[in-house]
């Protein structure tokens, strides 16, 4: 792959085409060279001038523009990644049947790089047997067809078929550029439950005990699992205003006790349970009915109770064959380094896999990237190199899949 990745952004003719402008902006601002190839119908929603201005590249829809350069062949041949967003029902059908009647479908036939198609259409169109058959055909050929989001569609309709948010599309694109095989459909038929974000333990109506967790790693785990075919439930504490991952059901919680109840309820019939949330170790014994003023109470008189160890409880309560994954955010101290504390936590928690992250000084919390170690119950230790949180998520799911029974 080139130092500057060449990305082809295909745009289908649906109302969600306007979101392609944000996908394009995010890709170019993160250092990618992007060539936009819309369908003729897409230009009814967003004009060629907009795509040209944002990409700095010419825009054409037909195969007879700049014929000497043979663009319907060259664009696909030189691409490091093709992203189609939105991919309409019509475009999915034409791609599945190998049609090449415009520049975009010709490009799809000549591309030998990863291809990510992001559907957007009304629920009835997405669920139609013809569309599902076309999606299955494309996936069987190695195309990554993303799960659509659920939400507001055209007009007053709501349901599955909404284009995922641009930030999520770009994150999937980044993942495929870094790890082209990161999104196999190897979790189909599996139910996974993931916790994410931080908990807040109320002291009074204004203040709380909390932590710096943004929830980004847990959301990345949910995003990647959903795109690998899993039935995903995400139990989300307080996060950095993150959009719901496409294909995941989100359960909102606030405190550690609420998180505990939700995880026990949701995990009963799960194949995999992942505790990525940053749970507060303590909570105030008393909740003040009004804001505590300075001088009203001696700070040293605020009593704290120990929160339950949710991960240990989940391990004890798990059903036969259920895989449990824990996360450990650690700092070194006089007793040992990060990995030393991670090994001790693995033994104490009894999980199948433990992801150990070093935190502090701009590491892990509130960051886009992550690194660490993956420890197994058998005593194996695998370093996880620095990369996006989606890359780390893919590494975790790669380790989980062999642990699942048939």
TrEMBL record:
InterPro entries (alphabetical): CoaB-like_sf (IPR035929), CoaBC (IPR005252), DNA/pantothenate-metab_flavo_C (IPR007085), Flavin_trans-like (IPR036551), Flavoprotein (IPR003382)
Any GO MF annotation of the entry: phosphopantothenate--cysteine ligase activity
Name of the protein in question: Coenzyme A biosynthesis bifunctional protein CoaBC
Cofactor note (record): Binds 1 FMN per subunit.
Swiss-Prot/TrEMBL keywords: Decarboxylase, Flavoprotein, FMN, Ligase, Lyase, Magnesium, Metal-binding, Multifunctional enzyme
Domain DNA/pantothenate metabolism flavoprotein C-terminal: 187-401
Region (Phosphopantothenate--cysteine ligase) residue spans: 192-406
The keyword Magnesium appears for this protein: yes
Cofactor(s) needed for function: FMN; Mg(2+)
Span list, region Phosphopantothenoylcysteine decarboxylase: 1-191
PANTHER family the UniProt entry points to: HOMO-OLIGOMERIC FLAVIN CONTAINING CYS DECARBOXYLASE FAMILY, PHOSPHOPANTOTHENOYLCYSTEINE DECARBOXYLASE
Pathway: Cofactor biosynthesis; coenzyme A biosynthesis; CoA from (R)-pantothenate: step 2/5; Cofactor biosynthesis; coenzyme A biosynthesis; CoA from (R)-pantothenate: step 3/5
Reaction it catalyzes: N-[(R)-4-phosphopantothenoyl]-L-cysteine + H(+) = (R)-4'-phosphopantetheine + CO2; (R)-4'-phosphopantothenate + L-cysteine + CTP = N-[(R)-4-phosphopantothenoyl]-L-cysteine + CMP + diphosphate + H(+)
Record-linked HAMAP family: CoaBC
Family: In the N-terminal section; belongs to the HFCD (homo-oligomeric flavin containing Cys decarboxylase) superfamily. In the C-terminal section; belongs to the PPC synthetase family.
Binding site for CTP: 281, 291, 308-311, 327, 345, 349
Organism listed in the record: Kutzneria buriramensis
Residue ranges of domain Flavoprotein in the record: 6-172
Single biological process term from Gene Ontology: coenzyme A biosynthetic process
